Amino acid sequence: MADPQPICDDSLPPVNHPPLSIPTPTPATTSSSLITLQVGSSRFITTATTLSGSPVLAAKINNNWVSSERQPNGSYHLDADPDTFAHVLRFLRDGIYPLAYDARSGHDFVLYAAVRQLADFLLVEKLVVWLREKRYLKAVCVETSAKVVEQDNEYLGFGVGEIDDAGTKTMYYPSWRTVQRYMCPVGNQAHNGHPVRCGRHCRRAQRGGADRYEDCLIMSTLVLKEKVVFDERVCVEEW
Q1: Of 29, 111, 204, 228, which one is least surrounded by beta carbons within 10 A?
Q2: What is the per-residue pLDDT across 45-56, written as a single tens digit (0 to 9) for each?
Q3: Which residues, other chains included, contact 124 with Cβ-Cβ below 8 Å and sequence gap of 6+?
């Protein structure tokens, strides 16, 4: 018996199978993944680990964000002020609380309010509490000293002077007052106001008379110094 032959009918059209399509998996966002945020006109490059300190941003990461927030350049849009967001991001990254203080104008309370509002929106609770309790007031201490300087006619200035490199601010408050001033018997200007400077020559000219005093106007200046002392421990979060 002969072996069976395969049936081959050349009249049947060939079957064209479509190519097998294998979907490319989207890589999951890992803790070390770099994430670019477009906040206003500024771009911030950070990691998922840093942003996980905000439950709102962490939820966006876990959901791979939404398509409407994805920008053509691969960044993600966040509708916020970039300068304000920089303070929130610094806290999430380094645990540094914002301190906006100037020796001339003091604390920037408007900035504190803006950072607190954004931190509240992003649910960064520790930052919100720190700002709400105004702990930044404990980070700066102003030490004040005062002395009176009397000069014959030297004007030291009025109001705020220069602030030195150490952050010490000097303020001058001058006023005139009348004093009894010792006058040298021989008219030596270097001796006026200083009886101990008069020697024998001056005393002989005095001829045993009493010391002579005259009413004189002098400038009395109250000099106030304010030194800013910063306690950095208040501005650092202990993780």
Answers
A1: 204
A2: 999 999 999 999
A3: 53, 54, 88, 91, 92
What does 166-204 look like in DSSP terms, one character per residue? T-EEEEEEEEEEEEEEEE-TT--TTTTT-GGG--HHHHH
End-to-end CA distance of the chain: 88
Residue-wise pLDDT tens digits, 1-36: 455 454 444 444 554 544 434 333 334 455 557 889
Tokens of 1: 């018996």
Q: Identify the pLDDT of residue 153.
A: 57
- Give residue 30's identity as a one-letter amino acid code: T
Cα maximum dimension of the chain:
167
pLDDT given for residue 23 in this prediction = 37
Provide the 3-class DSSP secondary structure of residue 228. Answer: strand
Separation of alpha carbons 120 and 56, rounded Å:
10
Residue 101: phi and psi, rounded to 5, are -135, 135
| 148-157 average pLDDT score | 69
Compute the chain's Rg from CA coordinates.
40
Structure tokens at 226: 């304010």
Chain length of the chain: 239
CA distance 208 to 17: 135
Query: In the numeric block, which tokens belong to residue 33?
Result: 């993944």
Number of Cβ atoms within 10 Å of the Cβ of 98? 22
Token readout for 42 is 């500024």
Tokens of 170: 């000097």
